[in-house]
Known about the structure:
The complex is a heterodimer. Chain A is mostly helical. Chain A is built from eight helices and no strands. Chain A has a single domain, classed as MetI-like fold (Orthogonal Bundle). Helix content of chain B is 39%, strand content 26%. In chain B, helix 3 runs parallel beside helix 5 (143-156), helix 4 (114-127) packs across helix 5 and helix 5 runs parallel beside helix 6 (173-188).
Amino acid sequence: MFWTDAALFFPILLEGLRLTVIVTFASLLLSTALGLVWALMRVSGIRALAFFAQCAVNVIRGIPIIVQLFYIYFVLPELGITFTAMQAAIIGLGIAYSAYQSENFRAGIEAIDHGQIEAAQSLGMGWMMMMRRVIIPQAVKIVLPPYGNTMIMMLKDSSQASTITVAELAMKGQMLASSTFKNSTVFTLVALLYLVMSVPLILFVGWLERRAKKS
Amino acid sequence: MSTPVIELVEVHKHFGSNHVLRGINATIAKGEVVCIIGPSGSGKSTILRCVNGLEAYDGGEVRVDGIRVDRSAPSITSIRTHVSMVFQRFNLFPHRTALENVIEGPVFVKREPRESALVRGRELLARVGLADKADARPAQLSGGQMQRVAIARALAMQPNAILFDEPTSALDPELVGEVLAVMRTLAEEGMTMAVVTHEMGFAREVADRVLFIDGGVIVEAGPAKQVLTEPQHPRTQDFLRRVLRPI
């Protein structure tokens, strides 16, 4: 019984899974890039930039993701800025998570021994080159484990995109369940599909950590 | 007198309310080896750090090759490529091999072709006795080896002068000799060197001049042998007595 239902539902859920992967991956990229920008502004030593970044991060952290999604999808169109549901989900999750990413990146950068900064400066490196060649490569090792956790959280939080009509995995599941009343089959499948995606991520992060430790 | 590579004129520096340098005047000529000695907290390291702009100074003037040292001016980059620094705690880049540490400055700051930098990097490692450690990471090296890599990294910039900030203070006693030997060779080859050190034997044998600093002023300066064996000022005499006969 379970298996016949599962075989029937599986292709429908896969459509949702495809959107989940796209939303997760795209918002991960956006949050990483934006988080790095906030973090670099925070450690730039330029007071105005640091202050601006800190305010932005606090505002983003202080508002629930779901409200940010609503704001981008429902409020911005009133100001003439319209996004598709997918775009709004990616931008919303990307911005929301950039705050957490930036705190992680900043902690990683600030954990680097001050002597490294002085060595880079004494070789005549400018700020950007020092970050690129000396600080960030070392900070990556420190930042990686929490970054992996963020990836897994984002995968799961991508289900919030359903609140702005993105038919990702969780929403597909909900739709299937409400039309077939096969709650246990549908949600077991949904849970398994999320697990199938997050377990490789967990293993991947573990591998990265071990590799970083070796070098 | 030959051209001064480093000049300090009436240099003052505060850390908050702490007046650490109180009018330092000194010149270091090309090819000269000057050791800076004095008690902890006397401002010795701060002098070096003002020369390559790791610290800002707030009075007087520091010049390198006649150019004013100003941390916020674009010229600071070229000054730092002319005056290399060797740190007490080595400050090697732990994510790069010994050879990569050595070529980092030439390739990325001076934009030298990687191939020629690699050749010269290997020569420099051989010169400090570490030809076989080119591919080792800092974590695989002893303190003395790390400091010798740091010296090779400083030399790779082809500097006009090298600043040594207590280069042997973080080393186990049995590793001090190998670093001092490399420094002695550099001195003999005519490298301009400013060395903050507690190694009085090295200062006596290798330095041309010694500056004794205490309380942010140069208390006594002169030829190394004279200052170290016949100090004139009571504070120098007292310091040397305590350093040379600690018990």
